[in-house]
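User: structure tokens for this one?
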Amino acid sequence: MAVYSPNTLRQTDIEDLFRYNYRPLCMYALHYLQDTDLVEDVVQECFTTLWEKLEQGSQVANRRAYLYMTVRNRCLDHLRRKGIQTESLKPYDTYGIIDDDDAEERSQIEAKLWTAIDSLPEKCRQVFLMSKRDGLKYEEIAQELGLSVNTVRNQISKALNVLKNGAIKIYSFILGIF
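Assistant:
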């Protein structure tokens, strides 16, 4: 059995870090930038930077915190290059300006929500997103997909139940209930 020191770089460490933090980091970056392609590029660059730093023997005690800080700084750098003053820039969402800690926490919850949405069966996910994201009425969805209005209603109800049960688990974990 191999013994690893805290500074030993293993590919599985980076893969696990990527698997558990990629989506939350993208959601976090979206609080600064509104371009999903750009956000994905920024987050991937930050993982690459961390990988290179670790391969060179640098010590990064809290890799997750390092990634959040690096993503934030890269987002601000991008905004500066666009001529936007960033000295007092704060992340924001649909409710307005939020602080960095709120943005980080919300990004983790949003990532879990999108993971739950992605886990829905294909047709159920499609119907749910057409209703909630695109704002289509049940009748419009039914007509566009060739379904009955009752089927659309059932698919949305099914999606909401799955998401509600997932939300209970998320909030229970955050609040330490279980």
